[in-house]
Amino acid sequence: MVAFSVSPTGGDDSVGDAVAEAVRVVRASGLPNETNAMFTNIEGDWDEVMDVVKRAVDAVAAVSPRVSLVLKADIRPGHTGQLTAKVARIDDALG
């Protein structure tokens, strides 16, 4: 599972259109994903996920000469459904 944020840098103040193109790539991938105010989370095997991240970066790079990428990965082979299961475990702990 990977949480990543990609955005153009060095341009105007609005990054929404470029970020939307990156999110469009993620959603079209068919891999489990969710987007929040800070990151897009995507789940799958390493090669699949990293291919999607690269394509999302390429989508932003198509409109900006410089791109910022922040990425955090939880590498746990053999586990699926963690995109929601991790949050459910916290909710259960909160009662």
Automatic annotation (TrEMBL):
UniProt domain Thiamine-binding protein: residue ranges: 2-90
PANTHER family assigned to the protein according to its UniProt record, in alphabetical order: UPF0045 PROTEIN ECM15
Protein name: Thiamine-binding protein domain-containing protein
Organism superkingdom: Bacteria
GO cellular component terms attached to this protein's record: cytosol
Family stated for the protein in its record: Belongs to the UPF0045 family.
Organism of this sequence: Mycolicibacterium flavescens
